[in-house]
Give the backbone structure.
Amino acid sequence: MRPVSAAPVVVEPVGDPDWIGRYEVRGVLGEGSMGRVYRAYDKAADREVAVKVLKGLVASDPRAVERFRREAATGRWFGHPALVDLLDAGPDYIVQQLVEGESLAARLRRRGLIRAGAALPILAAVAAALDHVHSRAVVHRDVKPSNVLLARGGAAKLADFGIARLGWAPITRTGEIIGTPAYMAPEQLSGGVAHPKSDLYALAVVAHEMLTGIRPFRRPSMAALLQSIVADEPPRASAVNPALPRAVDAVLAKALAKVPKERYPDGRTFVMALRSAFGRQAPDAVS
């Protein structure tokens, strides 16, 4: 399921509800393989919100329903400024803060890459959000540009905990691979258990994509891509974008290490190292 973003509202197709719980449906925000996200109005609070619902066929899958309910339960714990607020939940819907803006994926499609002065605050916000949930034994497992929402005021928020893993209650089978392969860590693709450093690896993939315009691993087929992530070293970011300082290469190489213990211990340390690698060049390193 795609994250909750406010861009743009489209006309509701026939068959969409007029109301979900107490929320008046005003349009469709997005749709994924699992469900649909609506723009809705909460009269009691006098605000617009985003409401997620599962699709009909998916709603009959007990494991999908369990993940949906887990997202609602997990979201109630957080209350962090870099996380999308969960406002309410019903038996078959989740109500979240409506973020007026666009996803990081949409911005990358528009711009190709993002200059360091703009990229670093976004990465810092996502890193802080990850450190926060990791401290609560939650692993996101699907960190990627489409799950990072950029508000019009500039704030970045991490969204979509639909496949999150709680340290005390995993909901996938042993050896099952779940997530978005292009952003998954080698240990996940090898069937291992996702942990905080798997999320940090994904954040490093996002950082590479923001600063160079491309992901570190790209192959013509899924099988070749998975093999490359597990076995190949990432290209130097400065070779892709010569405007980047060479010091950035070492930071990203460490963050993308194949062995989890060789990566940075937390998101804050990674972003601090990246900021230090730019030094005074940070605001203008990428135009």
Summary: The mean pLDDT is 85. The longest strand covers residues 23-31.
